[in-house]
Design brief:
This protein has 277 residues and is of the alpha/beta class. Helices cover 53% and strands 12% of the residues. It has a single domain, classed as NAD(P)-binding Rossmann-like Domain (Rossmann fold). The chain is built from ten helices and seven strands. The chain has a seven-stranded parallel β-sheet with strand order 3-2-1-4-5-6-7, with helices on both faces. The protein starts with a strand and ends in a 5-residue tail after the last helix.
Length: 277
């Protein structure tokens, strides 16, 4: 039976590939992104594939716009089965040198953005008798803090807390909640945020080592198509796990982060990222 899936941030990368896979499988896709050109080209692709869809240009921080989008989706499809919160921005740099105004923007988009899209569709999902899924794209750094990603880490920790708490609230209605935690995906996401601190910064040399190492890891990370296939697996599961990862290495890091003493696991992390002093 075909599903109606709402996706935020679907003009590029994983979100776009998920939309294409779902449309090819006969599912209906509704979604938005701030990238108007990306939305226009995706709309053409989905039309060529033959999938029913509703796409629009919209900013995740536009609360009234999200509610209007919800109303259009429910008017067209009469229901929503899955909501995938995929929109998010990165944030990189030493905390001491971070703009807290920019940090607030990151938290607004990554955390409140996920909350806004879930909150918008929850009443309709509950009132139709329950069922359905709310899925949030998170990150490995949502449970393993990474240096020079303090604000991004904070946003992903917040999503984890919100999603887990929400799962208790909506379980009596048969609504499943899940979170997907990739370490890296081979996209332009990291390249957009990786910037060296200025000359003279006491963090510059370690940040450079971190960026170089991260770029190495990205080369072997899943590409957006492979990542999208993993996301679609979670979408299609009747009872997805609360936490899902893309690779064994990611799950292994989470395991040792849980069982090893802090000094040991911190040493592993710093050595792995090649930034040990």
């Amino acid at each position: 039976m075909s599903k109606v899936v709402v996706i935020t941030g679907l003009a590029d990368g994983m979100g776009r590939e998920v939309a294409r896979l779902l449309a090819a499988a006969g599912d209906s896709v509704a979604g938005f992104d701030v990238d108007a050109d990306g939305i226009a080209s995706l709309e053409k692709e989905l039309s060529d594939i033959g999938g029913d869809h509703l796409l629009t240009t919209l900013d995740i921080t536009d609360r009234p716009g999200i509610l209007q989008f919800r109303d259009r989706v429910l008017e067209k499809f009469k229901k929503v089965d899955i909501v995938l919160s995929n929109v998010g921005i990165g944030f990189f740099g030493p905390f001491e040198e971070t703009s807290l105004d920019e940090a607030l923007k990151c938290l607004e988009i990554n955390v409140i953005g996920a909350g806004a899209i879930f909150q918008a569709f929850l009443p309709a999902m509950r009132e139709r008798g329950g069922g359905g899924k709310l899925i949030a794209m998170s990150s490995l750094v949502g449970r393993i803090p990474f240096p020079f990603e303090s604000i991004y880490t904070a946003s992903k920790f917040a999503i984890g807390g919100m999603v887990q708490a929400l799962s208790y609230e909506v379980a009596p209605f048969g609504i499943r909640v899940a979170m997907i935690e990739p370490a890296q995906v081979s996209t332009k996401f990291a390249a957009k945020i990786h910037k060296l601190p200025p000359e003279g910064s006491p963090y510059r040399e370690r940040v450079k080592r971190f960026i170089d190492r991260d770029n190495e890891l990205i080369k072997t990370a899943p590409d957006p198509v492979k990542a999208a296939k993993m996301i679609v697996k979670t979408i299609n599961k009747d009872k997805p796990r609360l936490y899902s990862q893309f690779a064994f290495r990611d799950s292994f890091f989470l395991f040792i982060n849980k069982v090893l003493p802090r000094k040991v696991r911190d040493g592993i992390l710093l050595n792995f990222m090649k930034i040990k002093v």
